[in-house]
Amino acid sequence: IARQGFYQFRERLTTKIVSSGGTVVLADQWFPSSKTCHNCGCLNQ
Asked: For residues 36 and 20, what is the distance between their CA atoms, to the nearest angstrom?
């Protein structure tokens, strides 16, 4: 990853996932995902 940069890695990974029928979901870097409940989606503050 370090040689080609994270952007290029993300683009290649996205291309492979989409071509195989998968879905890619990108989250904002400041999204508080560690505070979100995986069962109900509630945000703990």
From this structure: 29
- Give me the residue label for tokens 């492979």: 16
Of 45, 26, 29, nearest to 37 by C-alpha is: 45
pLDDT digits (tens, 9 = 90+) for 1-45: 566 688 888 899 999 999 999 999 888 888 777 777 878 878 777
**What is the C-alpha to C-alpha distance for residues 9 and 6, in angstroms, rounded to an integer?**
5
Number of domain units in the chain? 1
Q: For residue 29, what are the domain limits?
A: 1-45
Please, which residues have CB within 8 angstroms of residue 44's CB and are 6 or more apart in sequence? 35, 36, 37
